[in-house]
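Dissemination and training. As part of the outreach component of the grant, students in the summer workshop were shown how a complex can be specified as a set of sequence lines and then modelled as a single object. The example used during the hands-on session is reproduced here so that future cohorts can follow it. Participants entered these lines:
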Amino acid sequence: MITAIANQKGGVAKTTSTLALGGLLAEEGSCLVIDLDPQGNLTTGLGIELAESQPTIYEVLTSETTAKEAIVPTPFDLSLLPATATLAQAENKLLTQPDRCFILKEKLKPLRRTFDYILIDCPPSMGVLTANALCAANALLIPVQCQVFALKGVEGLMKTVNQIKGELNPKLKVLGVLPTMAETNTLITQEVLKTLKHQLEGVTVFEPVPKSVKFPESNLAGKPIHRYANEWKLIQPYRQVIWEMRAM
Amino acid sequence: MITAIANQKGGVAKTTSTLALGGLLAEEGSCLVIDLDPQGNLTTGLGIELAESQPTIYEVLTSETTAKEAIVPTPFDLSLLPATATLAQAENKLLTQPDRCFILKEKLKPLRRTFDYILIDCPPSMGVLTANALCAANALLIPVQCQVFALKGVEGLMKTVNQIKGELNPKLKVLGVLPTMAETNTLITQEVLKTLKHQLEGVTVFEPVPKSVKFPESNLAGKPIHRYANEWKLIQPYRQVIWEMRAM
Ligand SMILES: Nc1ncnc2c1ncn2[C@@H]1O[C@H](COP(=O)(O)OP(=O)(O)OP(=O)(O)O)[C@@H](O)[C@H]1O
Ligand SMILES: Nc1ncnc2c1ncn2[C@@H]1O[C@H](COP(=O)(O)OP(=O)(O)OP(=O)(O)O)[C@@H](O)[C@H]1O
Ligand SMILES: [Mg+2]
Ligand SMILES: [Mg+2]
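and obtained this result:
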């Protein structure tokens, strides 16, 4: 099962959610997380410092190496396909290819039996990298920060997703929308949660992940949240997503 | 004077900072803000609903209209060059042009005498849209959220900026780095501020903008922060940036 974690809005907890889900899934099966963002935050968020010669997702997409050779272990039983800033060059390189949206899908084919779960952390844009993730995946999780700008983007994102489903990847299913950094005692969060439920008929809106300084602290520590601060209320929304993944 | 507000990290307050600065500058001179992000958050953040037929920055970049014709007034004496999701198509369209990084610079030439200040809100990526902003601008402001992932990206961003300065736009000056959403009583914020000052020799690090729910509330209200909540401690860091702009 391949799940893309995507939203073109920046800073909505795509990477943080990939870390949290990957950390939990690694304890119940084999899990690979893929960093598809030139910022490489998933790679840093797992505390991984890459050797100069280490192949990354860029070399996989440009066929210089196989996915298997680019995978690195992490201290959390979680496998990582890392990224560096070089990945930014992939957009231009891939644009000229005829089947440019299916390159990642092809490269992951040999790994399908190796891992129970594969998660893809997407960059904050709707470019060719995210399109590759949406074409390789059979499930999509959309983190949405409980704020106005993030909310505005969801409708547009759903249109793009339905287009991709219609034209490129009919198997893609929307797992749901995960509200993040929720401060349920503020008006803003309440407004956003209400609007999300209205706007998205037929789409699962998960229980919101509360805002907590433990999340940025876990990034600094280079650990998935449940390995840094195993508090029920922070982890539970992520467990709910995993139940939904299993039910698919 | 044209100032780009850029950082490829998502959610660091690029749009919020453009709104805050634009709102203040509009009270002392003529100011144009340009939405260069397909999410159109600057356009929504000013409470602007566009008519179907309204030309946007996309039509300007693709030479279907002039910048002057695409400018809309706002209730805050601030002029806006708006964006919609169509702008996402500009990346692919512009990539094939020979002078692809200088298109925006050319389109803004006729406006240089019309406005005292022009601010450009950039998308969270280092693609051709941000490159256009960095080639059109003579000053660059880098908002950085006081968190680990945002910090990690600054070094890489500075390298890219120096490359652009060296090869494409020698006039580009870094105004400084603006720490945002600072919670000065937390360890994370203190660590980030300390590291920024060390890492960036010779670059101005402005006083941090405190984290405050008034910012997202002002987005919901469609107003620049000083029109929504004129609190000294929220506005002062932005006034400091304006002093630096004037001193250039
Ligand atoms: N529930 C939460 N509570 C508080 N802070 C959070 C929470 N989730 C994420 N964060 C913090 O918010 C910031 C943005 O999160 P993150 O970088 O994961 O978002 P992103 O969508 O991956 O960003 P980008 O668009 O740049 O890829 C990070 O510094 C992270 O630590
Ligand atoms: N000082 C602050 N305190 C609290 N919240 C803030 C502050 N500044 C910005 N925000 C909020 O943080 C969120 C992210 O800010 P904003 O959208 O301006 O970032 P951005 O860098 O433009 O994002 P993107 O990368 O998607 O363009 C917004 O919901 C905004 O209201
Ligand atoms: Mg991320
Ligand atoms: Mg923005």
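Chain A has a mean pLDDT of 96. Students were then asked to discuss how this feature might be tested experimentally.
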